[in-house]
From TrEMBL:
Protein name: Leucine rich repeats-containing protein
Organism: Trepomonas sp. PC1
Database matches in Gene3D superfamilies: Ribonuclease Inhibitor
InterPro entries given in the database record: LRR_5, LRR_dom_sf, Surface_bspA-like
Domain of life: Eukaryota
Amino acid sequence: FCYFPQLQIIEGFAFGKCKSLYKILGDKIKQIGDYAFDSCINLTHIDLCEVEHFGSCCLQSTSLISIQNTKAIEINGSFLNIDTLQQIKMENLEQINSHQEFQNCGNLKFMDLPRLQYISDHMDLDDVFISYSSSEYAKKNFPIQNNQITRQNILKSRFINYPTMIALKGLILIEQDEIPKFTFERQKIMLFAHCLNVKIVRNDAFSKCYQLRRFFSRQLSVIEERSFNCCLALTRIDLSKIQYFKSESFRYCHSFISLQLSAALMLEQHSFNSCLGLRQIIAPKLQLIINPFSGCKDEVRIVSGLETAKQNKIFRVCQEQLFFQEILAEQFVERRDFRNQLQKMQQSCFVVRRYGALEKEKQK
């Protein structure tokens, strides 16, 4: 996330393809340039109320659910390919100039446009309702629905009303020991999967679960091709029992930094392809490496006793392990432990001070 309390202008391409960015904190943004947040597919929170100018494709392919704005008069293809978008409220919007303005926003259901005066012909918004408070022009072009009903529905669950898929925000499986092929593919809003006894994850089982941050299983031992392909936000998964990593099993998992592969014997071709954040793999039993890190941004350290590996600019085999600061997921483990340590020290100091005070009283 980013915290910008005084930020007013975001220029073009500023955060383009920051695929793990999920929140922008700041309520004074007035201008967003072209492609500023293009392909920030985990971005779900940003205050757009004061924005006066939206650049072309500035919020394309994000995960926004609701857009509210009080200043902008027009939009310029700013909200393309947002398939999670359900509601738009723009108090000053006067015209929608392109028939492709909300292209691929298939779940858009409700708009509140009090000043709308013009809309392009051939707009494909047949399933979209307009509020009673919208302009007369808007009411002539869209069916009317009580906006309070829609708002209540969104408050109950911001992730419902997907007509073509089941939208899961989290997954808990107790008895299941295998996840079949394609079972949870494209669950774009799933945040966690708690699968206690799952041993096998088949091909594409969690492929393109863009917001999946944590996968937990006590028994995970087999991962097949593309099992976690394009899980861009995945940071926590226990891989200590897996011996063979199949092709593209973790392709485009940008949020990995350091992985513990205690039982790994082989890394197949492209198994960690384009994991842009990956810096280190700890694999003491590793025997064979077949170009697993193509597309990675920086050199990947492999902590292993393997001596026959051909080292290149993509990876380097070494003996010493590096330690990294933890990244934001669901919990800050290091900070929690440090806080607990401080609390114990505080209690100890209180006891010492109390004991010292009692000794002084006895001496008097």
